[in-house]
């Protein structure tokens, strides 16, 4: 499978994850999100940037939803952030769908919490 962004064909696997993390850009993220019916907001970008930072700078870590809740609570200085808050952003699973939009490899972890 593939994705067409800015006149460039980007290879993806059968589940829509990028084959090569270096193919990611903000425009690629927007294209993946649009394909999934998501309009990216500042909060989406906060989560995307967090997931990318964890993967790239923390030994390819792909945090689960509970860990993302804690990180976004701190980032947004909002103690009311919970899993529902994140599922409102990425309804199919914040860690997996968020990871796909973030250009990360497909997570083999089961569950999201």
From TrEMBL:
User: Key word Acyltransferase present in the record?
Assistant: no
GO BP annotations of the record are:
tRNA wobble position uridine thiolation
The record's subcellular location field reads:
Cytoplasm
Molecular function as annotated in GO = sulfur carrier activity; transferase activity
Give the matching SUPFAM superfamilies: DsrC, the gamma subunit of dissimilatory sulfite reductase
Q: What class of enzyme is it?
A: transferase
* Keywords for this protein: Cytoplasm, Transferase
Coiled-coil segments on the chain, per record: none
Q: What is its EC number?
A: 2.8.1.-
A GO cellular component annotation here is: cytoplasm
- Homology family: Belongs to the dsrC/tusE family.
Free-text function comment from the UniProt entry: Part of a sulfur-relay system.
This chain's protein is named: Sulfurtransferase
The upper taxonomy is:
Bacteria, Pseudomonadati, Pseudomonadota, Gammaproteobacteria, Chromatiales
């Amino acid at each position: 499978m593939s994705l067409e962004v800015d006149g460039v064909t980007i290879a993806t696997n059968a589940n829509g994850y990028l084959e090569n993390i270096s193919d990611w850009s903000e425009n690629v993220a927007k294209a993946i999100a649009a394909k999934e019916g998501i309009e990216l907001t500042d909060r989406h970008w906060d989560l995307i940037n967090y997931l990318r930072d964890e993967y790239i700078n923390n030994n390819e870590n792909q945090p689960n939803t509970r860990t993302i809740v804690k990180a976004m609570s701190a980032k947004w200085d909002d103690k009311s952030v919970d899993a529902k808050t994140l599922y409102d952003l990425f309804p199919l699973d914040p860690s997996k769908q968020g990871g796909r939009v973030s250009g990360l490899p497909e997570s083999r972890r089961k569950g999201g919490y």
